[in-house]
Amino acid sequence: MQERPWRDFDWPLLAALTLLCAASIVALYSTDAAPGGATEWRQKFWFKQLVWCGIGYVAFFWVARLSFQRVFDAAPYVYAATILLLIAVLFIGVKINGQRCWIRLGPLGTLQPSEFAKLSAILLAARILRPLGAEGVTWRQLALVAGVVLLPVALILQQPDAGTALTFFPPVAALIFLSGISLRWVTAAAVAAFALGPLLFAFVLEPRLKQYQRDRINVTWNAIFYPERLKDRQTREGFGYQTLQSMIAVGSGGIIGKGFRGGTQSQGGFVPEHHSDFIASVVAEEFGLVGSLGVLALLLFIILHSANVAGRSRERFSMLVLAGYMALLAFHVIINFGMVVGLVPIMGIPLPLLSAGGSSLLMTFVSLGLVANVHGKRFSN
Amino acid sequence: MTPRLSSAGPPPPFNPRLRLLALQVGVALAFAILALRLWSMQIVHHESYVKQAENNRERKIPIVAPRGNILDRYGGVLVDSRPTFSLMINREDIQSEAETLRILMEEFGVSPELARQQLRSPSAKTRPVEVKSNISDADRAKVAVLDYEHPEFLVELRPQRKYLHGELACHILGYVTEVSEAQLKRPEFDYCRPGDKVGQAGLERFYNRILMGRDGYRRIIVDSRGRFVREIETVPPVPGQDIVTTLDLDLQRVAEARLRALKLDGAIAVMDPRNGEMLALASMPGYDPNLFAAGISRADYARYANDKHKPLRNRAIQDIYPPGSTWKVIMAVAAMRAGVLKPTDRFLCGGGINVGGRHVRCMGSHGMPPLPYAITKSCDGWFYRLGIKLGLDDLRTYASEIGAGEYTGIDLPNEFKGYIPSLELKAATVRRTMPNATPAQYRWTDADSVYASIGQAMVRPTPLQMLRSVAGIAMRGTFQTPHFLLEARPTHDSPRVTFENRVKQVELPDDYWEAVIEGMWGAVNAGGTASGSAIRDPETGFEMCGKTGTAQVVSKLKASKLEERDHSWFVGFGPRRHPEIAAISLVEHGGFGAKASAPNVRAIFETWLRKKKGLPVTTESPERESPEREAPKPARKARRQAAGD
Fold it and tell me: What's the ipTM?
């Protein structure tokens, strides 16, 4: 069958991607934020985001045209490279807010190796799980995948960045699920999670949490069940500040929002990190329910679309990669939006395509390039 | 070997597309929850979040209302409020308290203890607190420079009280400080908020509500760091009402100069007996109210509080003294009201009286004189016998009727009531001094009546009470309420306020009043105890009437040191027929009334006369006094004693 790159290109994906990038730049432009309070326009986040988008598009089209065989071949090397970067960041990384997650990278700011590790771990895990025996996934495969995932997780916990470490698990769970693990096991895992989860949390995880993590969980608990408790002074000005301010920003946005640059919460700088992890609060405040549901719908489209493309893929490796990425993206969006609306404790998880940050943006473009790649080839092979 | 992707494996034992679909459904469900949450927040609870967003960024900054001015009776300004700048700290905007305290210390020289104390005060919860008043232009510039990084530093225009004449009339005017935590809990200050400056003494306190006005405020929008973004509205403050007092600054100056020259503690009060207007009230020593206005330092306050001369106390209304022989005037009127004394009655002097097994002597030998002569010569023996005849109950009834041991009702805070003899008082005294007293010793005896009759023992009025009583007697039974308020000037939303004068009328036949007044006239003008202080003014025919008093502090025999010398009293009025001015002088340990106190009252009356005649007034300098007007010297004491006091 003839390749028809022009007609078969994934135009809907490109459109959604572009709309979200535009939303990101509008929101960042509105906040006028810049790293370290710089005032020059070239230093502002919106401009940097624009530049990274340009780089992202190049990467997107390049990956979209790539032969998947080369991706498959390169997976171990990419993985090894990112592991090396994760080790390097512990030694030469820049420390921000007590975390050593970034490597300084000239004029474009910083590089966050953990973002790349997410994709490379999915690639290698997919490669491992691709061969499928008659009985589905083997114990050996599972053990290998566990190693592939736990290595970067352990390194990232050293930074320490528990939120990012957490993002490695949903994709892997999706991959194993799609590798034919029997439904008995899935059911058993679900039952165990429901039964043992609370016990595990109370007796194993909880005592190991840092105080700020415990406080954040508390705040979320209150935000969901006792919203009035957020208003007492200690919570309001202490660890609950960010959640409460973000919720105020979202709630006060209303249906159509306060308008571009009209958000009192965003413009007054009441929500910390409103350019990165809390960018959704800016969209929700200034563009209201219309804006926030619009962004949510576009992201949901990309996720479901990725899954559809994965489902139509002719071979397992690309299917697994796309499904893994779908799980990763969904987890990011759900957790990030959950944070912004007070349903999930605060952890450093950005909103893909919207949060300022080159590494995350570039990885998203590359991953979606893979989706476009598979989409383009659905009739070939 | 790298496997080829195109090599299709065996068909999987499960349906991957179905499993993918399950994942998709799961994700969609999670998104539905997020969408529901957004709907709930942005539509259902929208209003509540809007309100919270507004509270977040709105600040109400109070604009302190300037207190009303205080003026003398001629409209001259005694106290006004001047705009000064204060360095304030807004606790809400502090990022790091240690850093803020460090900057306060290094840039503004504010001690961390003071700043911390202010930040812990209850007012810090609701409004910025003052850490330094009266800051310089340089300090203001520093705040402007610091603004971006440290929005907690604010400069506030705060009117500060200025007492133009320093210590002059300080006990009348009083002073202001920030309202205390304890005061805020009292209903008296229910209209105040933490951080308000309120009067703590004098007229500042008594008329605080009138003087204070109502603070305005500025509503502004701030960003998350508390930095000013823009203004919503300004409600201007309503300044307090100006108060015009009855104070005559010339007389006040004379009174204070006289007391200062004596270098003794004391009080002088001057009033118009016709209407109760207070013309002057001096109490020595005094204090500088300007120190309080600027925020008094601990050291300064301790100096005032621990001074044994009690400069913060207004001796004219907050100290009680045995009135000595000035009490005899009260005794005479009380006895006449009780019906035990007629102007023609004569009592024996007898050089004293034997009572309770001992002889209580008179300072002279006066035969068996009528009332005026007994007052003129201050005959103790005469009053001993009157006191026994009057008895305790009638003394209590009729002395308090004319104001002894009663509040005068002056418009100054914290007036003392003083006391006059009573059985309870006697019992308390006995319990204190004689632990093993028999029941008989608790009874009121003639000896008690004798001591009380000459203003010793259990008689303890305030100087102002004595002045009010004598002024009422001078007015032939019309007792006014002394007061300083002439009027509080009206403003556009507050009406004019005047003093509600309560007048008490005490009825006696005219010749009864004349007899007492004749005695007081004689004391000054007809060879009486104060004859050295007579005013001879043929032009107006002004004649001063008065009564001296020399109150024993300790037994005469032991008196040697200054602290043990007698208190010197003189209370007088003039002119005799239609009195227009009355004054009292009390000098602690001043010795004879005629020596330390009568010249004070005379100096005041002379000044008043000069003003009345339109002559220039100069504060009499004490150096011009003749030597014999100085405080008595011990050598001359014995000779004067023979003449009575």
Answer: 0.94
